[in-house]
Design a protein that fits this description.
about 0% strand
Length: about 60
């Protein structure tokens, strides 16, 4: 469960700083879009995994 928490925190941090990352590499907002979409995907996958784990342990 700790590993999922780390990925969720990293996804949120990447999404929050996507503007700064985009400015640093001068990608004209293209990289920002990629970072935000990737972060949202990681967040979604980790959230689903946490829900499945919680559901599995609640039945136990």
């Amino acid at each position: 469960m700790k590993l999922y928490g780390i990925f969720i925190i990293l996804a949120i941090i990447c999404a929050l700083f996507s503007d700064k990352i985009d400015e640093a590499v001068k990608a004209d907002k293209r990289l920002k879009r990629v970072v935000v979409i990737f972060s949202a995907g990681v967040l979604l996958v980790c959230t689903i995994a946490v829900i499945v784990i919680i559901k599995k342990f609640s039945e136990w």
